[in-house]
Amino acid sequence: MADRHRWWQRVRELLMLVGLLALYGVGLPALFVLFGKGEAWPWLLPMHHAAHYLFVALLLLFVVGLGHHWRQMRSQPNRFATRLAAEGVTYLLLPDRELLPPRHPAARTDGDLWAELGELLPKGQHLAVELVKQESAVGFALHGLPEAARAAVTQIMAHWPGTQVRQLPLDELPMFAQGDAAWWCVIRPSSKQRPIQPAVQDPCLALLSEVARLPQGIKGGVQLLARRDPYSGPTLERQSIHKSVPVLNMLNKRYELYRQPWEVGIVDQTHRRDIEEWADRASRDFLDVHLMVWAKAPSEVQAQRHARQLAQTIIAQYGPSNLLKLHKEGADLPPKHRFTAFEGGSWTDRELGSLLHLVGRDGVAVAPTLRCATAKILPPAAANLLSPGVLLLAQRSVYPSTEIPIS
Hints:
Elements: H1 2-34, H2 44-49, H3 51-87, E1 89-94, H4 110-120, E2 127-134, E3 137-144, H5 146-159, E4 164-168, E5 181-189, H6 203-212, E6 219-228, H7 232-258, H8 261-282, E7 286-297, H9 300-316, E8 324-331, E9 345-348, H10 349-355, H11 361-366, E10 396-399, E11 402-405
Antiparallel strand pairs: 1-3, 1-4, 2-3, 2-6, 5-7, 5-8, 6-7, 7-9, 10-11
């Protein structure tokens, strides 16, 4: 979604540039000649006669500029994916299995975590967060450039105390292992404006359970690529304002014509709820997200079946406000962690927090094979602690070659 906004912004800038050049190079000489200034200013006549050639040159400049910008936007993901494959680091995230989950999903801070992760990322960079199954174990992984990945790990450990981190070679992730047939599915929201509301208490637990219950010999998981989206929030805010003005005018007119305040109130509540949802969503931090599920199996038919099953599990967790849909699918996994241009969807930090986050006891209950922290820091032994009420008195402090009395 961010790519579309960036594309149209560049188109508008290029149109403005070409328009100004056309105004000064073609319009002004023609206007002065029309008012009889051609004889007083002889240099206007050659420009006026060459206006047609200048106009064609400006059109060519516009087309060439669009082509150059299109090529840059299509090639930038490949360049960053190449850099990510060469310099990126992969961390295995091991949550604390004894961590108690919040009593209510609204108490979670995962939305704030995704907002912080989005702020940490420089322009044009993205993070990869994955939930994968290899052999019989399920785990969370994070991949990115070293600086961004380390900063992201710091924020995750602050929001999920007790989390441990281990660095892994990228090739150890089953998604990029050689062999077996593969199938992938990309999921996107169906609406750009409406909120993505979960239909269950915690969609991540259902997804974790589905990945953990993949049959023996089947590898699969979820890959989420996220980057900053500074365009969707302001655009949605403008759209909510434009939507509210005609609705209020319509309600006032209906009240003046029919004098039916109860009916106006019903219509008012319906439209006001939509406007408030749009405005509330516009106030959140947006991220451009490429959400993909994948599966690897001995045959392509098996991989396709399990990948589609994972996709349907995610789709079923969200309500009718903004249905998720299967955007595209195919065989053979795409290049490593490449965020294809114009393929992202707009998610808020809160919506991403409901989809993918670390877990504690609740996650271990639905996925006993989840890879968790293996050890925890224990308090000092009781023998090394002073009993209450014991006073330690020091008579002298001895420094090298010097005795200093303590008064």
